[in-house]
């Protein structure tokens, strides 16, 4: 387990907190652990998108000649509204 070094304080709506409490109670966990897990999933989600884009790029056929325009190829690999910059 990693050592937690920073404290974060946020304000959320009552309904959001009540939902977090229900999730935490159902899993026999603290609200803080549910929030930490959600943050981890959010931060990791971009890496998954980039890995899928790389897999799609590597799966593209190589014809050895002049292929399609790079901007067209890049658009084909990006999910709607995605940004791999």
Low-confidence stretches: none
Between the first and last Cα atoms, what is the distance in angstroms? 31 Å
Number of strands: 0
**Structural Rg:** 20 Å
How does this structure look, described?
The protein has a domain of 58 residues. The protein contains three helices and no strands. Helix 1 packs across helix 2. The longest helix has 29 residues. The two termini are 31 Å apart.
Provide the descriptors you would attach to this structure in a database record:
85 residues, mainly alpha, 3 helices, 59% helix, 0% strand, elongated
Brief account:
This protein has 85 residues and is an all-alpha fold. It has three helices and no strands.
SSE layout:
Blueprint: H1 14-26, H2 31-59, H3 70-77
Helix pairs in contact: 1-2
